[in-house]
Amino acid sequence: MSAVRLAFPVALSLVACVIAAPGATAAACTWKASALPLPAGMTQGRAIASDDQGGYAGIMMGTGPERVALWKPDGVVDYGQVPFAPYLVSVADVNRSGTVVGHGLRSTFAYGPFRSVGTRIEALPVPAGTHSATAKAVNDRGDIVGQYVPKLGERGRAVMWPADRPGQMVELTGLPGTDTKVANDIDEDGTVLVDVVTSNGTTTGYLWKNGVATKLAPPVASKDVSGKSISAGRIAGWISLEEQPGELRAVQWDAEGNASVLPEGQSADSVNRDGLAVGDTHDYSVGAAVWRGGKLEAKLPNSPQLFAGKVGDDGGIPAYTRSDNKDTPLVYRCG
């Protein structure tokens, strides 16, 4: 629950280049990774989300419980541990004010949502008797979205913790059917990206705002459509082909709703307001793919194993590598 000041020049350059992407456009810069510093006593960390202004949220670990952290240009903010979940903590997002959201494992298959307040972590309110709930995203206003499961065995519901209604959790109304719903992300204008998943696993993505749900239109005939990230109206996600349901394709929607398949992509997991997208390819030797303007720009290496987080408006990609069961936090930047 303290701000640990570590100058960022301590960060070490880990990767000096990317895997050449056949057919990729000539990049105006080179993607490089730099390690993020760890305070004394911390031996591991994971950078997951960007505050869009050079800060990256995640967790760090030593010999004790996992701690929520925000790596800022002038040091590391230590929010401490999640009170109800010392381990198996998932940081999901952070906004420009430094509000970090996520969830932790309360008990077997049951999660509790949290947010940061100042430099401490507190539980988000849920109805009494709630089985499980997760926080997935937060916008700069402080609206938080996620999923709520009332009772064990019941279907999940897409929910919001509105910034202007402290202490309240509200279900998103106007979504079709009674299937499982999860709110994946929220834009600055309050538009929420929601997946509706049937009992047989078929997924349909929607844009939700003020009680009105609009289905995401895929670029080609599809069995499944999922939106994972939204920024300034741009959306990143994936589809499965109608004639080949097991075949996934990464997709990006522009601010006007026009969709296109991203080259070599299996899933697009995040996008920033400028259209820079990050996701996975079908090549498991690639840690992550980067697309700019709908064109493949780079393939980030997967040795050691790479886990890429949400790209920020500052162009940084928070991530971590895993080697010998040790996680190292880092950020990729193009420069």
From TrEMBL:
<feature type="signal peptide">
    <location>
        <begin position="1"/>
        <end position="27"/>
    </location>
</feature>
<protein>
    <submittedName>
        <fullName>Uncharacterized protein</fullName>
    </submittedName>
</protein>
<keyword id="KW-0732">Signal</keyword>
